Amino acid sequence: MVAFDEMLPAEAGLRRPYEAYDGWLKNQDPARLTEKMRDAERVFRKTGITFAVYGEQEASERLIPFDIVPRIISGNEWRRLTQGIEQRVQALNAFLDDIYHRQEILRAGRVPRELIAANEAFLPEMIGVRPPAGVYTHIIGVDIVRIAENEFYVLEDNARTPSGVSYMLENRETMLQLFPELFQRIKVHPVENYPQLLRQSLAAVRPNGVSGAPTIAVLTPGSFNSAYFEHAFLADQMGVQLVEGQDLRVADGHVAMRTTEGYKRIDVLYRRVDDAYLDPLTFRPDSSLGVPGIMDVYRAGNITIANAPGTGIADDKAIYSYMPEIIEFYTGRKPILGNIPTWRCSEPDSLKYVQEHLGELVVKEVHGSGGYGMLVGPAASKKEREEFSKKLAARPSNYIAQPTLSLSTCPILTEKGLAPRHVDLRPFVLVSDRIRIVPGGLTRVALKEGSLVVNSSQGGGTKDTWVLDD
Amino acid sequence: MLLGRTANGLYWMNRYIERTENMARLIDAGLRIALTRSQDASEEWNSVLLSAGAASAFAAKHSDHTAENVADFLLRDMSNPSSAVAAIETARNNARMVRTALTRETWESINEAWMSLKRVLASPIDQRELPGVLDAIKRETALIRGSFYGTMLRNEIFDFAQLGTYVERADNTARILDVKYYVLLPSISWVGSSLDNYQWESILRSVAAHRSYRWVYEAEYKPTNIAEYLILNARMPRSLSFSYRFLAEHLKFLGEDYGARHPAQEIAERTYARLRGTEIKDIFETGLHEFLADFIKDNNRLGDQVAQDFGFY
């Protein structure tokens, strides 16, 4: 199976979005490009753009490898993508509002009731709670893969706390530093206003009682969290405080942060802490990362939490398979962006099929992320498949399966010149009184030849993503 | 408006940067004596360890006071929280925590110092390379100070960081003097002996003052002059008086910013006034050691009061 290459597809020759770049590339000295690649690594290390890998003692701070060949998307392709994404995030928010209120979609029998009730991501504490401005998921990273010229699919809706936006911004910054001449030749939509848009978006969903500019803060689990760089980066770029649970307390019905001049009220909290750790009085009692009592303040409407607690029910991998029904139910239209066919192993027929075709499928944990705990059938050994099969039989409802997709490829620069590698795309979406999508996103690339796993924790890298202003 | 935790991070960031640099200076002074006075070297290394507040931790690990052991313990032993490599790492961890409060250049200079010193101090140091290693440490901390002074806005962030610098520096200079206070006492039998001479020079060297001393005083080292220089001279950048001049000033700025007068400001101003109103002969009369011991205690108390006044914890 030959993958679709976004620059040089086998049958068609150089694709249009890459023409101008290719013209420039042809005139570059390969040695200079290799030198630029090293420059890029130095820039990243110097600025401390690192991420921590859990369970690795040695290199506790690592760089995500950066490839200097941009991934290029034409203006037309982007317009189609954004229509599909907008439709999707509208449906996600409508679904969340429904699930925590009237549950019409369950009454209509379009999504099975037990899928919600028995789901860990469903928070009964959120039933009947309407977040400020009615928005549940404010920041979404929709993972999109491409199979062919006109075939895009959504792989995952990251509706809880998607990360990676700082890489989108730093990748562009690095490219601007390394190749200023390229941006003079080729018109690329800017992405650098993302932090301003994020700030506007968060301000727009402030609690009802707040008049004037709200006080916004970013809540991080702390400097040892794998995404700490991003938390600090976003707080910095937005010009807001970066707080930890230990800085916050609830007083007089509000959440307040301890400052050098006493406690100061917070109106909007962009939290990068998982639901379970948010409030030890409501969720995990052993957590010190959150704020005791914040859920009471939230239910009283005195703080906006972005994303809202309980949004995980919308990006759960078991729910994912119902997204086409969900989109149609709430928007009245067919999905613009397709889903990947998904077998729910909780259903006996599907389980049987999956067990019989393990060698062809990708099997994922329903609640997993980061590429952990999954089986890539075609790449697995017979022994690995047999072991996985046992796990699957023991807890079928914990798994879903999808066909192994031939993700599109994009060239990366290797020591031997350009070579195709599989990529995916995560555009970032902001929802408040309107939907904002920055033209671009994070392109993740599997650096190992033939590999389909793009996760940074598993040897994936990133690329700058260009949306052409054409 | 600043988070209390951020103010705390800034304070300790600069304390540990200052400490990193002071470790290099202490060893530099010890090395100088070890090179010129082979018999007295181990005693000198012991006072280096005492000045660094690391004598008992060292004794738990090593038996010989050799240059190799002491330099290794004070520069590259991660189990010693004040070693240069541990201190720069703590400084960098604090900087990482407060990075949104730092200019990009300041953060990068700290991050680069950490990367570079970790590399330099990764393997045991060959004695021939020790001077080069000490230079590298002083250079990295100077680069940090350069970007800090050159790019940081003079606001509360700057003030809290500077409080850390001067509390640490005052503590360090006072310790150096206290460990050697007996060498400075006027004693008829010792005065003018060559033993005193190099001990005096070592004190000056450990605060990088052996050259500037001569600009202020006559060429000959005199214990009262040395003590006066390091305690009372408000222009000598590592003296107690200089440190307190700036501690009082930064606390005053913070008080003005916040429209409040904090207990910490009272303490710093009182100490500074006392240093200004004192002559060195009074200090010698009441007892140099007693004076220094009280000072070190009060200096610690100031640090605690700052933490309390500004919601560090």
Automatic annotation (TrEMBL), chain A:
Residues 70-446 form the Circularly permuted ATP-grasp type domain. SUPFAM superfamilies: Glutathione synthetase ATP-binding domain-like (SSF56059). It comes from the Bacteria. Signal peptide: none annotated. This is Circularly permuted type 2 ATP-grasp protein.
Automatic annotation (TrEMBL), chain B:
InterPro entries: ATP-dep_Glu-Cys_Ligase-2, DUF403. Residues 2-310 form the DUF403 domain. It comes from the Bacteria. It holds the Pfam family Alpha-E. This is Alpha-E domain-containing protein. It comes from Aminobacter anthyllidis. The lineage of its organism: Bacteria, Pseudomonadati, Pseudomonadota, Alphaproteobacteria, Hyphomicrobiales.
